[in-house]
Design brief:
- By secondary structure, this protein is of the alpha/beta class.
- It is built from 9 helices and 8 strands.
- Strands 1, 2, 3, 4, 5, 6, 7 and 8 form an 8-stranded mixed sheet that branches.
- The longest helix has 26 residues.
Length: about 280
């Protein structure tokens, strides 16, 4: 099904880029459902961190409606696997091991490999030893997505191919380069979740400080990425919703974030496709 992105056989061939954004997978799933409701299908998708989760689920065969139901059912206990003293001796530290997250990905992804996806997809991550961004677009799907979503401080780094990796949003919030290299893309749509700087208490904890620093870094990297996309000459559309903040202790806001992003995307994308549902 590679290369199919035209609404009812017409319209632009669309590459979708889903940005990083903490627990922004609810909002990205709402965007995916909006595209489907407008009769639009990606020719290819790329994602970073939370965006990698949804890009992979979508490409693997999950619909926007399926993602809404599956994400709404997730509870913190499903991925909360705190590290212990032995874990700290085996590799780089993190509050959570991340093994439970990978099991959850295995459960919710509709296929096991990039090659089995219904349209091409890529996810990015940060190679710690190489100190560079890397893109995964082949091989096992769940380990690569886990690496892309391994937020430093919260999750320990993910081991892929014998190398430790962290959250792709550290270096590329919107990984559009892979999409711009494809000849089957006319239009790149970036679903961009703003990196709002969290308000810090008088005596912030280490994780709160880290999140604030990462938010500032992501903003700078993101601007450079968007500039590169514009310079390529490819048509570019940025969809940037205002959605409720969702986190591991605020998962109940997920459905509201989903609906806010879905509604915003329907307005932003109206005219690109053929309305199929309401």
């Amino acid at each position: 099904m590679s290369g199919e992105a035209r609404a009812e056989g017409s319209g632009p061939r669309i590459g979708v880029c889903l940005s990083s954004g903490f627990f922004g997978f609810f909002a990205h799933a709402g965007f995916a459902l909006a595209m489907e409701e407008l009769g639009l299908r990606p020719a290819a998708a790329a994602g970073s961190s939370a965006g990698a989760i949804v890009a992979a689920m979508w490409a693997s065969g999950r619909s926007g409606a399926e993602m809404r139901e599956r994400l709404a059912a997730i509870r913190r206990s499903d991925f909360w696997d705190p590290t212990g003293p032995i874990d700290w001796l085996r590799g780089p530290p993190g509050i959570l091991r991340g093994d439970a997250m990978e099991r959850l990905l295995d459960e919710h992804l509709a296929c096991a490999t990039f090659e089995a996806c219904r349209f091409p997809v890529a996810v990015n991550a940060f190679d710690i030893a190489g100190r560079r961004a890397v893109v995964f677009s082949s091989g096992p799907l769940a380990p690569a997505v886990r690496a892309s979503a391994s937020l430093p401080g919260l999750f320990r780094p993910a081991l892929v191919g014998g190398r430790w990796h962290l959250d792709g949003g550290l270096v590329e919030k919107t990984p559009v380069a892979w999409l711009l290299e494809r000849s089957d893309i006319d239009l790149v749509i970036i679903h961009h979740l703003r990196s709002a700087a969290p308000s810090l208490p008088r005596n912030p904890g280490a994780l709160q400080i880290l999140r604030a620093a990462i938010g500032a870094l992501r903003g700078r990297v993101d601007e450079a990425t968007l500039d590169a996309a514009r310079r390529s000459g490819r048509r570019l559309l940025i969809v940037e919703p205002d959605v409720p903040h969702v986190g591991p202790f605020a998962l109940d806001r997920g459905p509201d974030a989903f609906e806010a992003a879905r509604s915003h995307a329907r307005r932003a994308l109206d005219g690109l496709g053929v309305h199929t549902t309401r």
